[in-house]
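Re: the 212-residue chain
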Amino acid sequence: RFRQNAVTTSICWQSRATLFSGQWASRHRSFKLRCPHFTVGKAWNNTWPAILRRNGYYVGHVGKWQYHNSDLKGTRFDWASFFEGEHWYKHGNKLIAGEDLARDETFRFLKDRPKEKPFALTVAIYPPKPIGGSNKPGKQWEPKNETRAIYENITIPEPLNAKEAFKRLPPFLQKGEAYARWKQRYVTPLHYQEAMKNMYALITQVDQACKE
C-alpha cells in the first residue's frame, strides 16, 4: 500500500511527477508544464504505473494531469480521462461540477475495467484550486450554491500572525507572483471571507464525491 507521499517541490505538476516517479524534481526534471520528461522513453519504465502494468495490472488515470502530452492512453495508461482547469464542465446538455465528473469517470473506469485483472487508478480532482485571475472577492472559486450556503452565516478566523509573518519573508517573496496572487484573493477582509468560504465549500464537495 502507498501510505505516504512527500515532495520537496510544492508545485502541483512537479509534485505529480514525483508521485508517479518517486523522484525529486532535480532528478525527474519535469519542471515545466510542457516538458513531461518523466513520461518520455525509458524514464517512464520505473514509474509505479509502468511497473504495475508489467505485472498484469489494468492502470488508469482520471482528471488533472497538466503536462499537455496526449499520447498517454494505451501507451502509459490502459484507460484515461483527462480534464482540468475548471470547477464546472459541460457534460452532454448540462453543467457538472469537477469533483462530480471525476466521481462519474471513476465509476466508468470501474465498470469498463477487465474483471479478471487487478487494477490501479489515480483520481486527480481539480477543485479547490482557484481558476482565473479575478480581483472580485471569492470569484476564483465556484462552488455549488447549496454547498456555499453551509458557510454563509459564519466568520472564518484570519491567521493571527499573517501580517507579522509576511514582514519576515525575504524581499523577493514580498514582491513576487505569490504576493500578486495574494492581493487578488485575500487583500481585504471581504476578499478573505469570500475566498475561504468558497474554498471550504469546494472541499466539502470533494469530500462528498470521495464518500460516494
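The mean pLDDT is 91.
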